[in-house]
Amino acid sequence: MPIPAVMDDVVEVSPFERRDDVRVIVNLSGRYMLASKRNLKGERCEFACRIVNVSLEAMALAAPVAGPIGERVILYSEQLGRLHGPIIRLMTNGFVISIAASQQTRDKLAAKLDWLVKQKDAPELRDSRRHPRVVPKNPMATILQADGSLTSCLVIDFSDSGVGVSADLYPEIGTPLAVGKMVGRVVRRFAEGFAIEFAEKANLADIERLLASTEQRALSPRILARQ
């Protein structure tokens, strides 16, 4: 049977939201676009996200960039396909969208959710620590730039040598940054984010803890300037 899921830290809720449907707890990677968020070329910006829970009516995302209540979101997931709908609730670390779909699409989604519940060995549902690249339990983090500014981000995955993140930030290759307390340089950019190579390697358990650290003010911008 599907497992009811609850997300805390509500920031704002749409008056049209319904909470009477059963949601399935998942931990799936995805990418999304906001209708109003565009780059300098006029193209829609793409961000990475983690799908926290989903039902036939709504979906909760851990996401680095949110829009206002009512903003249309287009989401892509390897397991669930392409879905879209308006934001109906803002959370501290993401938001909830109402799924706009035909009955046929909802029937297909129901079958996929049923498969996810039964598929204990699905790659996205396994213990991520068995893999070289790790998906953190808490995907939200903060980026510190050399000028001392802070930006929220989503950690896509990490290894002992680097981390992939998604944020409303477009640094150049070679830019020194700190994610949590892990310092490094941008070495690659891709559609929904960028990759940072750590200045020093560490074991995975320590890296996960340091990435989630919110005590970045202890890191002097001069440390980044020396990278």
Describe the protein:
This protein has 227 residues and is mostly beta strands. The chain folds into two domains: 10-126, predicted glycosyltransferase like domains (Thrombin, subunit H, Beta Barrel), CATH 2.40.10; 133-225, predicted glycosyltransferase like domains (Thrombin, subunit H, Beta Barrel), CATH 2.40.10.220. The protein has three helices and 13 strands. Strands 2-3-4-7-6-5 form a six-stranded antiparallel beta barrel. Strands 8-9-10-13-12-11 form a six-stranded antiparallel β-barrel. The protein starts with 9 loop residues before the first strand and ends with a helix.
Task: Please render the helix and strand layout as text.
Elements: E1 10-13, E2 24-38, E3 44-54, E4 58-62, E5 72-77, E6 81-91, E7 94-98, H1 103-118, E8 140-145, E9 150-158, E10 162-167, E11 176-179, E12 182-190, E13 193-198, H2 204-211, H3 221-225
Antiparallel strand pairs: 1-6, 2-3, 2-5, 3-4, 4-7, 5-6, 6-7, 8-9, 8-11, 9-10, 10-13, 11-12, 12-13
Q: Quick summary of this structure?
A:
The chain contains three helices and 13 strands, in the order E-E-E-E-E-E-E-H-E-E-E-E-E-E-H-H. The protein has helices at residues 103-118, 204-211, 221-225, and strands spanning 10-13, 24-38, 44-54, 58-62, 72-77, 81-91, 94-98, 140-145, 150-158, 162-167, 176-179, 182-190, 193-198.
Provide the CATH superfamily of the largest domain. predicted glycosyltransferase like domains
Number of spatially distinct domains: 2
Mean pLDDT: 83
Count of beta strands = 13
Largest β sheet strand count, sense and barrel closure: 6 strands, antiparallel, barrel
- The strand line-up of the biggest sheet is 2-3-4-7-6-5
Q: Might you state the CATH topology name of the largest domain?
A: Thrombin, subunit H
Q: Report the radius of gyration as a whole number of Å.
A: 18 Å
Coarse structural class: mainly beta
Head-to-tail CA distance between termini: 51 Å
At CATH level 2, the architecture of the largest domain is Beta Barrel
* Low-pLDDT windows of residues: 1-8, 121-131
Number of helices: 3
